[in-house]
Specification:
- The complex is a heterodimer.
- Chain A is of the alpha+beta class.
- Chain A is built from 23 helices and ten strands.
- Helix content of chain A is 56%, strand content 12%.
- In chain A, α5 crosses α13 and α15 crosses α18.
- Chain A is globular.
- Chain B contains eleven helices and eleven strands.
- Chain B has a six-stranded mixed sheet with strand order 8-7-6-9-10-11, sandwiched between helices.
- In chain B, 33% of the residues are buried.
- Classes of the chains: A alpha+beta, B alpha/beta.
- The interface between A and B is large, with 71 and 52 residues.
- β4 of chain A pairs antiparallel with β2 of chain B.
């Protein structure tokens, strides 16, 4: 157990911090925070950089990208560009790392902040399916990959992992919440096969063409045939979890299967964190400010606290800070629900003076209840979509930017609410992955893999797509196709394992081909 | 003690391979020169990125703060950055100049270099090579002393294998002894000449400076006793210091012979060819003012420079104004002469190739 070893080396909290920890935990509980047991470990900056490079886990499988991240953190720490104050992992019990040369006040702040995160991990619904024993799982992954590397050579295995990693965002972020995959049994398919004729309603001869119109019968027959085709095709319906599909159907060697599975497991583990960055940081910041200013700080620490806290929520000119954005929105929600500023009556009211004084006297209890509910059910996109109001937007001074080629700089485009909100949601959505689905594993009856990108207004990055498709083709060992749009025109990208070709799709001709 | 050390060295190996391959791309980045004063060069390299299926670039971004519509939003490229995941953005890998020179050095050399220079000079090196029976205690050779003591105790029969205690006495002591060796020094001097006439635009000068910077950095790293002289010229030539060479902006006509004359004078005065390896480098857009001046140039190169120089190098930058005639004239005159090396630099990306042409190994 890596965690045990880590603890034994004298990483436990010194007595005064341990005392603080107990105090902060009690305070957190008294406010209704509900977190896993959290172990705090003291680390020096090299260790904390290493842990950060390993995404918080002390043991990961060998891979150059950890080294790359580590180098980056080391350099930026040496040049004073950043400093990692806190790191916490989503496990039960949870582990958080404290930098050993931080000020005491910083350690308190970090502990309060961390408890916010752990509460979020435990209660937010998007984290519900994550593996809470990931510490052990990661260490197991490391052992498995090391073993595979011993057998097959580091370079070969690493190259294969790189290949898998380039596909690791092609997963279905909702897979754990919705049951999508319907399997048809052989019997069902056989039954459907023997039942392709459309039943006729008994009728007299002269009435028959009217009661059983041949056109309709033909259409019904066709529909049945289509359904049958669908039942027999692989996948039965478009599948977004490309990695799962490859695991199930790609011709992989045993060790390749293992590697791909490990990469997929880890991708699913980290997926919710990317989806809740603003909320998670906002929630932790919300609570550390609350706990610190209400209870924990003593007078001598106020300046240092303010200094650090302002650093956390600092707003670079023109940039968005997820900590700030999240905490302000949570506070706004609390304020609105405490004073009843929501619902039909509030929305229907046009009078600015009344609105300014609006208070239904719902009380702080209701407000707090609401933020707890929000932290349970939302992710970043729904959070902003639901709670970003025009009023809030104006107070925060949000704007959209665009690149001005003449002055060669980014300029403020507009402060209009709708535009800002749209842009904000779009930006969030773009951080995500373009939605690509496996639609056919036997394209053109040549065992070629066809994927469909559901285009939502933004083109994919073609030079990367080329590499990604190449990697897919390598795994699938047959050519791979991706339908997408480029500059508003439907195109088919085809990678045959050596190069990618781009072909404009003539929709009708291709439909004809598909039917044939 | 950190587990990550293996991953780190793995990554460094990859980067070194990468840098070699993609070096041309970074070399042309002029910001490298900008940071040179601090002994640190910041090379923006693409993080060894794992390409994933991603959205293309976004023309709009989001911001927060004061400002009127249409005003600058503060930061360059935030709109793009917003679309990035951690791990996909540009990574600044910092190399010291020395590290870079090392990387360059694996592919380059000063061609035709010969051992020259004053044999009696400070190049003499003291090395510990011998052993003596007398010497200062600080130079005592433990292993040899012990060996000697062991020999003696076995010979005298005092050695007991079950209790192998060996105590050296004064006679056993052995000391390191140094021998002074004279090393032949390869003293070399490089004369950089740059055309700063009106036809050399900003871009051309920038290219020349990048190239000179890298050649100079590399030579400094690899050759001891290396000296550099800098000449800039338009219609007249003058010698400048390194700093001015990298900064100056001038304009005017072009008489290349002026630079060659000055170069020949400098060599004649300060660098006797018996003691020095001499490498004149000339950079120009090849647009000389008159045919007669070109003839003068060829004569100077032939009669004054080539007899003393190990190699004469000329690199021509492509320019919209210049005729680019000069390189053809040189080629016509010195075709087949190994001591004359010519190179063309069509654009920034070609700087690396050009350096290899001038200093490449095995040529």
């Amino acid at each position: 157990m890596p965690s045990r070893r880590f603890q034994r080396e004298g990483r436990g909290l010194p007595p005064e911090l341990e005392e603080m920890r107990l105090h902060i935990v009690e305070l957190g509980k008294s406010y209704g925070l509900d977190f896993f047991e959290t172990n705090f470990l003291m680390c020096n900056w090299e260790e904390i950089n290493m842990l950060a490079a390993y995404e918080g886990f002390p043991v990961r499988y060998p891979h150059w990208r950890w080294g790359m991240e580590y180098l980056r953190m080391q350099k930026s720490y040496e040049f004073g560009l950043h400093k990692i104050y806190e790191m916490v992992i989503n496990t039960n019990p949870s582990y958080a790392y404290l930098l050993d040369n931080n000020l005491i006040v910083d350690q308190k702040l970090v502990m309060a902040h961390v408890l916010g995160h752990v509460d979020f991990f435990k209660n937010n619904v998007w984290f519900a399916p994550t593996n809470r024993r990931m510490l052990d799982t990661m260490a197991n992954h490391a052992t498995r990959i090391r073993r595979i590397m011993d057998r097959h050579g580091q370079s070969e295995v690493e190259a294969f992992i790189d290949l898998c990693l380039s596909l690791d965002n092609l997963i279905d972020p909702y897979a754990e919440h919705i049951r999508r995959h319907r399997q048809f049994s052989e019997e069902q398919i056989e039954a459907a096969e023997s039942d392709v004729e459309v039943a006729r309603i008994p009728a007299k001869d002269y009435m028959d063409p009217h009661i059983n119109p041949p056109k309709f019968l033909e259409a019904q027959r066709q529909k049945k045939l289509d359904d049958l085709m669908k039942m027999k095709s692989v996948p039965e319906e478009p599948q977004r979890d490309v990695l799962k599909f490859l695991l199930d159907h790609a011709p992989l060697a045993r060790w390749q299967y293992d590697c791909l599975q490990i990469v997929r497991d880890e991708a699913y583990y980290f997926a919710p964190q990317a989806k809740t960055k603003i909320m998670n940081e906002g929630w932790a910041t919300f609570w550390h400010t609350r706990l610190m200013t209400d209870h924990i700080l003593d007078e001598s620490e106020v300046i240092d606290y303010c200094d650090h806290h302002s650093g956390t929520v600092a707003q670079q000119p023109g940039q968005l800070n997820p900590y700030k954005m999240g905490v302000e929105l949570f506070r706004d929600i609390q304020m609105r629900w405490s004073t009843g500023r929501h619902g039909k009556e509030w929305l229907d009211c046009d009078d600015a003076t009344i609105k300014r004084e609006w208070d239904t006297g719902a009380g702080a209890e209701i407000g707090l209840e609401k933020v707890f509910e929000v932290r349970r059910t939302h992710n970043d996109v729904t959070f902003l979509d639901t709670f970003l109001t025009e009023d809030f937007c104006r107070r925060q001074g949000f704007f959209t930017t665009k690149y001005d080629p003449r002055s060669r700089q980014w300029i403020i485009n507009t402060r209009e609410f709708r535009a800002v909100k749209k842009q904000m949601l779009q930006t969030l959505a773009q951080r995500g992955t373009p939605r690509a689905y496996v639609v056919d594993a036997n394209h053109g009856n040549r065992q070629e893999l066809r994927l469909n990108h559901r285009h939502d207004g933004l083109d994919i990055k073609l030079e990367w797509a080329s590499t990604v498709l190449g990697n897919l083709a390598a795994l699938w060992s047959r050519p791979v196709h991706l339908e997408t749009m480029v500059d508003g025109k439907p195109v088919m990208l085809t990678h045959d394992g050596s190069e990618m070709k781009q072909r404009e799709l003539d929709t009708q001709a291709d439909e004809a081909e598909a039917v044939a | 003690m950190l587990n990550i050390d293996q991953d780190l060295s793995r990554f460094k190996d990859i980067v070194k391979g990468r840098v070699r391959k993609d070096l041309r791309k970074y070399m042309s980045s002029s910001e490298m020169i900008g940071k040179q004063g601090k002994e640190l060069v910041s090379i923006p390299i693409h993080q060894v990125g794992i390409p994933r299926l991603r959205y293309g670039k976004n023309e709009n971004g989001i911001g927060q703060g004061d400002g009127e519509e249409g005003e600058g939003a503060g930061q360059p490229g935030e709109g793009q950055q917003a679309g990035d995941q951690p791990g996909e953005h540009l990574l600044e890998v910092e190399f010291t100049v020395d590290e870079l020179a090392q990387i360059l050095g694996e592919e380059l050399e000063l061609p035709r270099i010969e051992p020259k220079g004053s044999q009696e000079s400070d190049a003499a090196n003291a090395r510990y090579k011998g052993i003596t029976r007398q010497g200062p205690e600080s130079l005592r050779h433990g292993k040899r002393t012990y060996k000697q003591a062991l020999k003696r105790s076995i010979a005298s029969g005092a050695f007991n294998p079950n209790k192998p205690v060996v105590v050296p006495i004064k006679d056993d002591r052995r000391y390191r002894h140094y021998v002074v060796e004279k090393e032949p020094r390869s003293a070399c001097v490089v004369v950089y000449m740059m055309d700063v006439s009106g036809s050399m635009g900003r871009e051309q000068k920038e290219i020349v400076r990048s190239e000179v910077f890298w050649i100079d950095t590399w030579l400094r790293h690899h050759y001891e006793g290396f000296e550099a002289r800098f000449i800039i010229h338009d219609a007249a030539a003058r010698e400048v210091d390194r700093d001015t060479f990298f900064r100056t902006r001038e304009s005017g006509g072009t008489l290349i012979s002026s630079a060659y004359k000055l170069c020949a004078e400098i060599i004649d005065k300060d660098y006797p060819s018996s003691d020095w390896n001499i490498y004149p480098f000339h950079f120009s857009d090849g647009d000389n003012a008159t045919r007669s001046d070109t003839r003068t140039c060829l004569e100077i190169v032939k009669n004054k420079l080539l007899p003393v120089a190990n190699q004469f190098s000329y690199a021509q930058v492509e320019s919209v104004y210049g005729s680019g005639q000069f390189i053809k004239d040189l080629r016509g005159e010195f075709e087949g002469d190994e001591a004359v090396v010519l190179s063309r630099i069509p654009d920034r990306d070609a700087i690396m190739d050009s350096i290899k042409e001038l200093l490449g190994k095995g040529r």
